[in-house]
Amino acid sequence: MTLEATIVCLDNSEWMRNGDFTPTRAEAQKDAVNLICASKTQSNPESAVSIMSMAGKKPEVLVTLTQELSKILSGAQELKISGKIDFSTTMQIAQLALRHRQNNHQHPRIIAFVGSPLKETKEELIQLAKRLKKNGVAVDIINFGEVTENSDKLEAFINDVNNNDESHLLTVPPGPHILSDIILQSPIVESGSGQFGSEFINADTDPDLAMALKLSLEEEKQRQERERKAREEANGGSTNTGTTTTTAPTESNMDVNFEDDPELAEALALSMATDKMEVQSSTTNTDSQQHQQPPTDDTSSEAFKDQDFLNSTLGSLPGVDPNRIKNALESLSKKDEDKDKDNEKK
Fold first, then answer.
1. CB–CB of 133/166 below 8 Å?
2. In this structure, are residues 53 and 10 in contact, taking their beta carbons and an 8 Å threshold?
3. Which tens digit of pLDDT belongs to each residue from 74-117?
4. C or N terminus of the chain, fewer CB within 10 Å?
5. CB–CB of 175/145 below 8 Å?
6. Where do the DSSP E strands lie in 145-213?
7. Contact, 34 vs 75, CB < 8 A?
């Protein structure tokens, strides 16, 4: 942005207590002042900002031209509401303060908040505007609150003070909107030379530096475009010739390309190898367990053939007579032998 010396004139009259702006006109004005001062100081390190009051006993300078944002904001917060606005006297004091600025390379500018009725007539404002224009002072006015009564006067004032579209009038009617948001979208708060990608470079004041920055950005865009095309060609060639990057996702039923992340591909391969080893080890363990299992049927049948073991087991059971069980088994065995003999005779 252009190097500027800006005096922000605040309306601290009794009209600022009205609540037609959220939460009041005075609070909405404070938020907007914070936005404007921060924008002016951050846009150019050598720009200076001052704070003035427009009402009370008389208009006075609260903070002289400075580059310290904290000092500017603290002065705006200490503003007290009283009296009526004196627009004409405020403009004259601000013009005098800008004339005695330390850095003459700073472009003089006045930003005035008007939220109460003006006592000056249209003719008086026109004469004041001509004097400001003669001294090369640009003026921005935020007209809010008393829009109907002040619009005609302020439009005539801006038309006479304007030089090369450096002065602006922003009229904000009451409503649910936020005053600072509307100011942010207006020409009063400039966003810097965004055309060249930097908020500290102005093509008008330093065209060589702005052009160099523009060429540098164009070269960077071309380099990024070349890298993007190279990656696309590499990806296309790998899908046609290489099989290692495509088989791994196919085995895992995943449509993922790991060419841009080799570490992730390696981790996935190790995980798959570990799973295969666990499956193989589990199958070998089950096979070995099956081979190691004893034939239960043979051992059980051999145990029942041992008469001593059978008698001791049956004798330990309450209410069981081993002799009866022995006789029953013998009778069953005899019947089986008789059946075998009959089958042989047949």
1. no
2. yes
3. 988 889 999 999 999 999 999 999 999 999 999 999 999 999 99
4. C
5. no
6. 168-172
7. no
- Give phi and psi for 305, each to the nearest 5: -75, -20
Contact 256, 245 (CB under 8 A): no
Question: CA-CA distance, 329 to 343, in Å (whole number)?
Answer: 21
Report d(CA 121, CA 127) in Å as an integer: 10
∠ CA 6-32-25, nearest 5°, is: 120
Closest CA to 258 of 248, 276, 233: 248
Class of residue 69 by CB neighbours under 10 A (exposed 0-12, middle 13-18, buried 19+) = middle
Euclidean distance between CA atoms 115 and 11, whole angstroms: 6
The residue whose two tokens read 């006067």 is 153
The predicted structure's pLDDT at residue 136:
93
**Tokens read off for 210:** 């702005």
Six-digit token string for 182: 């509307």
Judged by DSSP in three states, 251 sits in helix
| Higher per-residue pLDDT: 206 or 179 | 179
Look up residue 337 and give its two tokens: 């032998």
